[in-house]
Task: structure prediction
Amino acid sequence: MKVGRMSDVTSWIRHGVEMRRPLFVHESLPLSDKIIIVGGGLSGMSCAYRIAQKRPNLEVVLVEKSPHIGGVITTWSEGEWVCDLAVNATRAHPAFWRLVKDLHLANEFNPSQARAKSRWVLLNGKRHRLSPLSLLKIGPFKLLKSIRKARSGGASVAELLPHKQIADALTLGIVNTTSEHVDADFLMPSMTRFGPSPPLKGSKLKKQIAASYPLFTPERGAVASFDGGMQTLVHALQSQLESLDNVTIITGQEVESPESTAKQFDVPLSSILWTAPVVDKGREQTKLSVFAVGYRDSDVANVGYGYGTLIPDASIPISGILHESDLHHSKRAPNGHRLFRIMAPHTRWEGDEKEIQKSIERLLSKEEPVLFRNLGVQTIPSYPPGYLRDLSFDSEGCSFAGWGVSGVSVTHVVDEAERVSELF
Ligand SMILES: Cc1cc2nc3c(=O)[nH]c(=O)nc-3n(C[C@H](O)[C@H](O)[C@H](O)COP(=O)(O)OP(=O)(O)OC[C@H]3O[C@@H](n4cnc5c(N)ncnc54)[C@H](O)[C@@H]3O)c2cc1C
Result:
């Protein structure tokens, strides 16, 4: 397995702290004449796009089990209501900006609304605004001590950030589970100093990374999104892949294993890049239901404009409320209305929609919503403490990518695809 070929300054400027994350790529993958990518989510699509673009003489086959590609990324719409079911916006990373530019999506990609910067956490029934200073609630000495301890590796986020409610709010918002169940190295490798360290001072590196963004330089802490939701990205990637002569997309075909895929396509095992979930290796997943809820402006006038609220209190069936129509540059609700996305983890909610309605009545408005839709169930991989340290596919003979191994967010999978293609 390669841990990334280059650890030089140029690579650190291109990929930033992603350089801390290992690549699980078999050394013979770049020598293949034909590669089979299993899984047509953002990871498989980005890997196919980057590799096929770089090596036009290499045959790339993308195999997806469902009838369409895009993986967990789906955007629901009904009239003027538009709501993503999974990721709705991206944090800043130059690899993501480069992908947007290469897909000619610059006009449809915009920073989030400045007025929607606030994030809250509901503690003891009250909303508290989250900021980097929230971490000081832990106490600077206690925090420093726990960070130092976590640097020995394999710690949970609860051990890294010893304030249960803040740590839970953070992990619930990202991976749908509480902090004692989440690997600190996987979520925050810079804080735990997992992997190699940058070859230059952090502040210098940050400056050079900021100067490397195409399109526009994002403001600190800002997110950006697509007009029409994340499906805009998936559709553009799909049409680029379809236009490449060396790419074949096969949908509606579930493959069993890397070995059976190699046999079926008559390639060596080392030509398989597996981006589908790795649950078969005893890695669990958690589930949550997603609801779109719309109100008249006047009925939610007391709800501040912002990104959303995280709810660590497990007695409430909702773990998060995202203010979809506040956040995005493009319209997500009819004029005079606001749209909220509600997340209900199945560890807290047993399926009675009345429970959700009661909670939103308490948390958002006593008035009836004008829209209440259950958009379905989403699945998120589990990353228990020690996950990244113990990840090893050396005996597998093929390569692995995707959010099971790269990191939870879209920036991780998109940057990983670039790093994989740089090996070719
Ligand atoms: C509710 C939710 C909220 C999220 N919020 C954010 C966010 O705010 N910000 C952010 O950056 N990220 C967020 N994410 C994460 C982001 O969506 C993922 O990082 C990214 O989409 C993962 O892409 P992937 O290709 O690795 O995986 P997937 O999208 O899971 O794709 C894997 C693909 O493999 C296919 N497959 C599985 N088994 C087989 C098989 N045997 N044969 C063939 N194909 C197979 C699947 O059908 C699927 O299409 C969120 C995710 C969810 C679910």
